[in-house]
Amino acid sequence: MKHLLFAALIPTIALAQKPPAGCPLLTAAEIKAVTGMTVGAPHETDMQLPNGKGQMTGCMWQVGEKGMANVSVMRAAGSQEEREKGLAALRQVYAALKAKGWTVAESKIGDKLCSTATPPAAESDHSPAMAGCFAVGKGFVYSVSVVGPRFKTPPEKVKALADNVVKRLP
Hints:
Order of helices and strands: HHEEEEHEEEEH
CATH class: Alpha Beta
Radius of gyration: 15 Å
CATH topology: Protein Transport Mog1p, Chain A
CATH architecture: 3-Layer(aba) Sandwich
Number of strands: 8
Strand content: 25-35%
Distance between the termini: 27 Å
């Protein structure tokens, strides 16, 4: 689900320069402080974006037994119009989840757009809940998310992780 949400923010034109490696942008200790759970080893998740839109770098950590924390980074689009198109696509994803009975909330916390998505009770064992934040800083668009069954990580805590990411961007 995280890649689907982040893909919604991919602009029509992205700079081709590779963003920084994802794993050095957060630490297991920071993730544990936010989630209160054990955190596994980091795993790079770099990928080439479709249609020549550049490259996204990232990192995933296992959280608890069935959860995950993720950071993703790519070069930001140049224009506000392109960013608005990306946000509109993101909100379409949220609308589709709501149509399936999910509870989705979005809020602006400081300079970050944060959201939560919780599946209906009947799906909570096999569909992960998510809290995540997106932001633009230092020429990059980046996201941090925490997902897992029955996760209740508040977006304010995920925002704290996103604040750590931007401090480490070049």
